[in-house]
Amino acid sequence: MLEMKVPSPGESITEVEIAQWLVEDGDYVEKDQAIAEVDSDKATLELPAEASGIITLKAEEGDAVEVGAVVCLIDTDAKKPADDDTDAAETQKTPVSEKLEVKEKVAPVENKTYATGTPSPAAKKILDEKSIPAIDVKGTGRAGRITKHDAENAMPSMGTAGSSGRGSYRTKLSLLRRKVAERLVEAKNTTAMLTTFNEVDMSPIFALRKEYKEIFKEKHGVGLGFMSFFSLAVVRALEMYPAVNSMIDGKEMLTFDYKDISIAVSGPKGLMVPVMRNVENLSFRGVESEIKRLAIRARDGKITVDEMTGGTFTISNGGVFGSMLSTPIINPPQSGILGMHNIVERPIVKDGQIVIAPIMFVALSYDHRIIDGKESVGFLVAVKEALENPSELLMNGDVKKALEL
């Protein structure tokens, strides 16, 4: 009998949470098969089986377990169940007329599994104690299975069958979501955070994308989005104002000569902030390819702890959700974060004339302990200048060469 213990997902992580079992108690599992998803305070990871055999689960979905604790047992002496060919053999012997008759009598199969609405043993005990029928509880586990936490949060019905459905339900915050909450409160409480704002005329970028986005995508296999322009504009501004690419370390200010830019993205488990490494060495194609790679890994829940740590500055794009203006919160221990917002056609003055232009409001939140107002405003103005004149300031006057066309 093999005892499977929780491996350490990374330095300083002492416990994980069983987010979802991908197998059922008593299933036969193959070596290296993914048997569970576990949440740490930084990422969601898959737990592979260490051997083949019959599995016995020792933890419920939603349980917090310490690194090194036993979460399941695998009976390595158990034989793999043989496929039962009896039904197939009988089917071959059945006359066609009987097959048609049977087919007509078969009722439509609902798209459910045996686990749908079924409580786990721990959940059943809790529901019995509360005198709550399992049919009244919506399961959030795999295939609709009722978990221990579903049962703990279930409330006895106090209405009638004809009620208007004024219900409520509780869901436990994931370990990742709780850690994000702690870090946000920490940032508000431990930094002297201020925010400065500006606006950017996106017309030059719109014109470049209109002219080159199709050929860019055809040649490189990725789109020419806004993030590459913003990332490279941030790199230029960080070189001009290195204090923004710094962080406080005790009584010292640690300044980095590389630019590792964190990109805030929304993943299935909540906010994730994967990091693009050495963006100062990336081209437009390099930035777009890296953003696509990290976004796919975040969406699929495959981001690792290493891919989410070590950034020196963050870019957050609330504009994709329709945000007009916001004050982004610093991602500690970093000292600055740039907030992008939606692009709206607004009247502005150009050369003494009122014209309509696509305008984006941008915001820089910064730690005033090490970044002065002059540096923060100068940084954001430098970003604005690069975005409003990208062909000269980001592409050295040669658009096709910068886009590798």
Key traits:
Dihydrolipoamide Transferase; OB fold (Dihydrolipoamide Acetyltransferase, E2P); 3 domains; Chloramphenicol Acetyltransferase; 11 helices; 405 residues; single chain; eight-stranded mixed sheet; alpha+beta
From the structure provided, what is the oligomeric state, counting identical versus distinct chains?
single chain
Helix-strand sequence = EEEEEEEEHHHHHEHHEEEEEHEEEEHHH
The helix content, as a percent range, equals 25-40%
Number-wise, the strands total: 18
Describe the structure.
30% of the residues lie in helices and 25% in strands. The chain is of the alpha+beta class and 405 residues long. It has three domains: 2-75, OB fold (Dihydrolipoamide Acetyltransferase, E2P), CATH 2.40.50; 92-159, Irregular (Dihydrolipoamide Transferase), CATH 4.10.320; 188-402, Chloramphenicol Acetyltransferase, CATH 3.30.559.10. The strands form four sheets. Strands 9, 12, 13, 14, 15, 16, 17 and 18 form an eight-stranded mixed beta sheet that branches. The chain has a four-stranded antiparallel beta sheet with strand order 1-8-6-3, with no helix packed on it. Strands 5-4-2-7 form a four-stranded antiparallel beta sheet, with no helix packed on it. Strand 12 (261-267) and strand 13 form a beta hairpin. Helix 7 packs across helix 8 and helix 7 packs across helix 9. The radius of gyration is 28 Å and the shape is elongated. The model is unreliable at 84-94 and 96-111 (pLDDT under 50).
